[in-house]
Amino acid sequence: MASLSNKIRQYVNAEVDFTNDVLLQNDSDGRGDYIKEWNLDIAEPTQAQLDALDAQADFNVAITNLRAKRNKLLQETDYLALSDNTMSAEMTTYRQALRDITNGLTTVADVEAIVFPTKPA
Predict the structure, then answer these.
(1) Pairing mode of beta strands 34-38, 22-25
(2) What's the gap between Cα 112 and its chain centre?
(3) What distance in Å separates the CA atoms of residue 113 and residue 76, rounded to the nearest whole number?
(4) 119, 77 in Cβ contact below 8 A?
(5) What is the pLDDT of residues 58-103, one digit of tens each?
(6) SS3 62
(7) Same structural domain for residues 110 and 55?
(8) Which residues touch 119 (CB under 8 Å, ≥6 apart)?
(9) Is the CB of residue 40 less than 8 Å from the CB of residue 22?
């Protein structure tokens, strides 16, 4: 679940000054953070809008983590792509599968269902 501040940043689609633009408060009553004061030119988001942003924010975190793992795996084989090496067809296929791994993903469940290809020997 995304933090309220991250959902607000996504709603505004810009960086937010949480000392002037939007003031958040938590009364320690178990209900969590809430918007105490909204000083932006756009309308304050409804709870339904924030809930919708929650799913998108969770997806953004998941896809960012997936890309980081993918990029690490690609980096581990980058040396094979140098001009003085001849890359095997299996390695070329592996690296292309890694590059394509994020294609078509739209939900956290899609991201969590990804199975990384096996690196050829």
Answers:
(1) antiparallel
(2) 12
(3) 23
(4) yes
(5) 898 899 999 999 999 999 999 988 888 889 999 999 999 999 999 9
(6) helix
(7) yes
(8) 73, 76, 77, 94
(9) yes
